[in-house]
Every structure is written in structure tokens, then in C-alpha cells.
Amino acid sequence: KACEMNMALQDPETRKRNMITDDDLRSIQAEALVVWTTKDPSGPVDEGKRIASLIPNARLAVIENCGHWPQYEDAATFNRIHLDFLLGRDNAASGETRITAGQE
Fold first, then answer.
1. What is the domain count for the chain?
2. CA pair distance 31, 45, nearest whole angstrom
3. Which tens digits make up the pLDDT trace of 58-103?
4. Which residue in the list 11, 27, 44, 68 is annotated as catalytic?
5. pTM, full prediction
6. For the segment 32-65, what is each residue's pLDDT rounded down to a tens digit?
7. Which domain holds residue 13?
8. What torsion, rounded to 10 degrees, do the Cα atoms 56, 62, 67, 71 define?
9. N or C: which end of the chain has fewer CB within 10 A?
């Protein structure tokens, strides 16, 4: 079933209906964490930077040497980034943090 749902996004009309627009991103009022990776085949780090720049009060965390699935490729780093953010242990209020995968 999950594969079916992912494949549905290959249909242009379904994809368009489910895309988050720049205006949607600008309207986010909560603090946000944007996680990107340096080896993601779906888009370069600049796309993560663009998304984070549109969200007020957003942080960008870039995980070096990971691809599209950092939650599997480097679960420890991925989890630490999220827990630090959720628990307020994230030192910088905004901006970009680069983390090398596998380094704790």
C-alpha cells in the first residue's frame, strides 16, 4: 500500500495537487526544522536553503555524505538533530548547520 501511495505522486495531476507552494511555506508560523543532505538525488542543498529561507523561524540542518534517506543512512545523527531541535538544545535560532554523517 505504501508503495502504491508513493507511485501515485508520479502522476503529474496528483503531484501538483499535493505540492506545498512557496506561499504555503511562508505561512508556517511554528518554528521549523528543514533537514537536507549533500547527496540527495532529488535536489541540491540550495533547494533546502530556499525552502528554509521561505519559512519564518526556520533552521536548516545539512547532513553531509547522506542521500535521500538520512533517517536510515545515519539514524544516530538524524535522531540527534531532531531531538536537539525538539528539546530546544539547538544553539542557533536560525541559519544553517552542517553535520558530517557518522560523527557524533
1. 1
2. 20
3. 999 999 999 989 999 999 999 999 999 999 886 554 455 666 555 4
4. 68
5. 0.76
6. 999 999 998 888 999 999 999 999 999 999 999 9
7. 2-100
8. -80
9. N
Q: Does residue 82 have an active-site annotation?
A: no
| Cell 544553517 -> residue | 96
Q: What angle do CA 33, 45, 96 make, to 5 degrees?
A: 45
Q: Among candidates 77, 57, 38, which has minimal Cα distance to 48?
A: 38
Beta bridge partners of 34: 60
pLDDT score of 2:
61
Cβ contact 48:68 at 8 Å:
no
User: Which CATH number covers residue 93?
Assistant: 3.40.50.1820
